[in-house]
Specification:
Layout: H1 2-9, E1 17-21, E2 26-35, E3 38-43, E4 47-52, E5 56-69, E6 82-87, E7 90-94, E8 101-104, E9 108-113, H2 114-121, E10 131-143, E11 147-161, E12 171-186, E13 199-215, E14 220-231, E15 236-252, E16 256-271, E17 278-293, E18 297-306, E19 316-328, E20 331-342, E21 352-364
Antiparallel strand pairs: 1-2, 1-5, 2-3, 2-9, 3-4, 5-6, 5-9, 6-7, 7-8, 10-11, 10-21, 11-12, 12-13, 13-14, 14-15, 15-16, 16-17, 17-18, 18-19, 19-20, 20-21
Amino acid sequence: MLQAIATAQTPAPPAPDVVIFTNGDQLSGTVLRGVGDSIVFKSDMAGEITIPLAKVKELRSKSKFAILPKGAPVNRKAIPTGTLAVGDSAVTVTPPSTPPQTIADKDLAYIIDDSTYNKEVTGHHRFKDGWNGSITGGATIVRSTQDGTSFTAGVNAIRAIPTVPWLPRRDRTIFNLVETYGKLTQPVIPQTVPPSPNTVAKTSIFHSDIEQDKYLSSRFFVLAIASFDHNFSQGLNLQQIYGGGIGWTVVQTPKQQFDLTANIHYERQAFQTPSNNENLIGATVGEAYLYNFPHSIVFTESGSFLPAFNETSAWSANFAAGLALPVYHRFSFNFGTTDSYLHNPSAGFKNNSFQLVTGVTYSFH
């Protein structure tokens, strides 16, 4: 009896959205969003598909949406949301207490669901929201006359707030971490009497940085940075950099982005030879470029030059480039190069350190 009462009180699921195409076909499901002259529709039968508005004869949804025209500035002031209707070459939203708003298909920029709109415009993001990036790993193991182990691991992550393209960017957090470690043990051949100890070659290169950007406009931002480097191949135990500066997003399109940055910083270099240690006041002039090729192939490149004001010989430079080739879902194969130059390494060490790294990359968002 109680079960029957509970079942009777369970609310019925909402009716699905139904799209009627110009050729008379129908499809039921849920409207997710709209961009330009198309909508994204999800159904159990067809999955998530993109439908041009020109092919829609009629569509009505009881869910609440906001619609934005092309070229209209969008700020943090909320606009009315309401039920959605598509037809007669126009999109109409009917709020519960204000007149309907209609935009012609050709003038439509976005259709945004109510929860997304409220979160991005009037809500607050948690720290875990908005992260996109990748995790890369690779390893080589040799067990024979020589014993060798090497591995590389890296994390590249960007958090951009808001997380949608129809609002101007306010904040951005960039985090990078990469470690390359290797050890090769080689016996003396032929062995001597008494036995000579094995020779050991070691590689240890570590880099990590974090940058916090605050946008003053759609293209200009101020930034704070911190970075940490260790490079056994250059005799560098630890380099620490802390500073702040400005940046300019020169190009920002769905396919590519190009940033220029400049900062003033404090730099502490600790070498294996303590007499080489430096406390520097310097600058960083840098650039970063990203290009999205067809078929989800991604190219990234960055470079920086770091002069020192109080010790002009203690300058350095860095360059990195990478190409990610998709393999399966979020997994891709990654080729990367990194070149680090120190003008003042420890005695006996080379100025330049070059790496070519390959590995498997997992993308997250």
